[in-house]
Amino acid sequence: MLHLWGRLSSINVRKVVLSAQVLGLDLPRSDAGMAFGVVNTPDYRARNPNGLVPLLQDGDFTLWESNAIVRYLCARENRLYPASLKERFDAERWMDWQQTTLNRASGPAFVQWIRTPVERRDAQAIAQSVTATEPLFALLDAHLAQQAFMVGDALTMADIPIACEVHRWWGLPQPRPAWPHLERWYAGWLAMPTSRGVLDLPLS
Asked: What is the pLDDT of residues 162-195, one digit of tens each?
């Protein structure tokens, strides 16, 4: 019933794959995007007019936008999806913040370090990205000093996009400050067998 399109080099695809693995779902995946193509074919565009990845198909239902897919899978399986209205929207808030704030700040450094040839790399763009991103990770560290997970004392859907952001930022060849509470939380992720094949991948 389920199928995913998207390449694992995409942070947004990694979110969905990590969700599926934590939920214990069988989620076949087809590479798509960048060198793999597919996303500009008429068939793909009919299902995702943005021409981006990931794209989820569940029977005759298709869904795009990575955090929406994470929410859908968690709600579908009735796991990691908070039952309490306030906790659910706390989780929603952090997921939106990841996409609209943290990802926008951290993305330029990733693009420069990993996707840009050395001779074209923009050191100023990296520095600006670091300046914008480090306070956001400090915010996460302060938040996780107060609780075990992003929403209280249990893993929820909110932890998944943040884990993928940490994986990407910490994979960059640059120094970073100590964030002990964030490091404790992320070490817990790395100890989970369901994180393998996602959070242990090199960036590309």
From this structure: 999 999 999 999 999 999 999 999 999 999 999 9
The 10s digit of each residue's pLDDT in 116-132 is 999 999 999 999 999 99
- Looking at domain 85-193, its CATH architecture is Up-down Bundle (1.20)
Rg of the chain taking only CA atoms, in angstroms: 17
Distance separating alpha carbons of residues 42 and 70, to the nearest angstrom: 25
Main-chain phi, psi angles of 81, to 5 degrees = -110, 100
The answer to whether the 2-77 and 85-193 domains have the same CATH topology is no
CA distances from 24 to 30, 69, 84, 150 (A): 19, 15, 23, 21
Could you tell me the sign of the dihedral formed by the alpha carbons of 111, 112, 114, 120, in that order? positive
Q: What is the pLDDT of residues 37-52, one digit of tens each?
A: 999 999 999 999 999 9
Angle between helices 180-190 and 123-144 (to 10 degrees): 90
pTM of the model: 0.98
Cα 15 from Cα 42, distance rounded (Å): 26
Q: Is 2-77 a CATH 3.90.180.10 domain?
A: no
